[in-house]
Amino acid sequence: MFTLLKRVAVAAAFAPALAGCVALTGSALDPATQPAALVANTKTGIILERLPPPVQALDVAVYSFPDLTGQNKPNDNFAEFSRATTQGGAPILTDVLVKAGGGRWFNVAERNELAALLQERQIIQNTRTAVEGDKSKGLPPLRFAGVTLQGGIIGYDSNETTGGIGANYLGIGGNAQYRQDIVTVALRAVSVQTGRVLASVTTTKTIYSVLVNGTAFKFAAVDHLLQAEAGFTKNSPTTLAVREGVQLAVYSLIFEGVKNKLWKFKDAEAGEAFLRALEDQRRAVDFAVTEPGSPEAVSPVALAAKG
C-alpha cells in the first residue's frame, strides 16, 4: 500500500511539468515546431507557369471538380473511412488555372462558392440602399464565362505494383518494401453557348510508398537476447499527386485547344516549342504501348509523373 501511495505522489509531482510540455506542443516555444510553408511547386507546375501568353485570356468557370472514385484509404489491418484522395479538387483546379502562364491564360470566374458571393453582394446593395436611398449606385454585373471546365478525380488504383527485398546474416539484416498507387484525373472544356465539348484530356500520376527497416540481435548472456530495430517510411503526398495530375491536364487541354484552333498563342513560335515537347511525350507513350519490351519504351505513368 505504501508503494502505491508513493507512486501516486511522484506522478502528482511531475504532472505540472508534463502539462507544460503538452501546452508547448505546436507553439513557437516548441523546438520541434516547423513553420508553415507554401506548397512546393511540381515540375509540371513550373512548365505550366512558363507557358507563353495567349492572344486573349480565356474566361472560364469551375463549378466543381469532385472525387468520383468513392475510394477509401487502403488499409490491410482495419476498415478505413477516410477518403483516399482529396475532396478539394475545385480549389486545386482554380489555383492551377490562376497561375497558368504566369496568370495570363485564364480569367477564372468564381462559381464554386457562388452562394456566398451573391449573399455578400446582396448585403452591400442593401447597405447602400439603406444609407443612400433609392439613388444608391448598384454593383457592376458579375463576369460571365464562355467556357466551363468540368471533370474530376476518376480513378484511384491502390497497390498497382508492390514488391520488396530483404536479407539476414548472423543476426544482422534489413528489408525494403515499396508500393505504387495511381490517381487518374479527367478534365474537359465545355462551350457555354452550345454545350459542345471543345477538348477533353485524361492524365495519371503515380504515388510511391517505400518502407525500409533493419534489425540486429545478439545474445548478451545466457537466455538474454538483445535486439534492435530501426527504419523509416516515405509516402508521396496524395494531394500533391492530384495537383500535378490537374496541372498536366490543364497543360494538355491548352494544347488541345491550340491544335483545334479554339485559341492560340500570342507568340506562335514560342508556343510551337512547347507543343513539340508535348507531342514527343505522346509519341513515347504510343511507342511504349505498341513496343512494351523495347528499351526505349517509356510508360505513360512515368511521363505523367515527369510532366
Would you write up a description of this structure?
This protein is 36% helix and 29% strand. The chain has 307 residues and is an alpha/beta fold. The protein has a single domain, classed as ABC-type transport auxiliary lipoprotein component (Rossmann fold, 3-Layer(aba) Sandwich). The chain has a six-stranded mixed β-sheet with strand order 2-1-3-4-5-6. The longest helix is centred in the first third of the chain and has 23 residues, at 2-24. The radius of gyration is 28 Å and the shape is extended. It starts with a helix and ends with a helix. Residues 1-12 and 295-307 have low confidence and may be disordered.
Write the SSE topology.
Layout: H1 2-24, H2 43-49, E1 58-62, H3 89-99, E2 106-110, H4 114-132, E3 147-169, E4 172-191, E5 197-221, E6 224-235, H5 238-259, H6 268-290, H7 300-306
Parallel strand pairs: 1-2, 1-3
Antiparallel strand pairs: 3-4, 4-5, 5-6
Helix pairs in contact: 2-5, 3-5
Distance between the termini: 69 Å
- What amount of the residues lies in strands? 25-35%
Q: The biggest beta sheet, please? A: 6 strands, mixed
Shape: extended
CATH topology: Rossmann fold
If helices are DSSP runs of H or I spanning 4 or more residues, what is the number of helices?
A: 7
- The CATH homologous superfamily is called ABC-type transport auxiliary lipoprotein component
Uncertain residue ranges: 1-12, 295-307
Main β-sheet, spatial strand arrangement: 2-1-3-4-5-6
Number of strands: 6
User: Can you tell me the CATH architecture?
Assistant: 3-Layer(aba) Sandwich
**Helix content range of the residues, please?**
25-40%
Query: If you average the pLDDT, what whole number results?
Result: 81
Radius of gyration: 28 Å
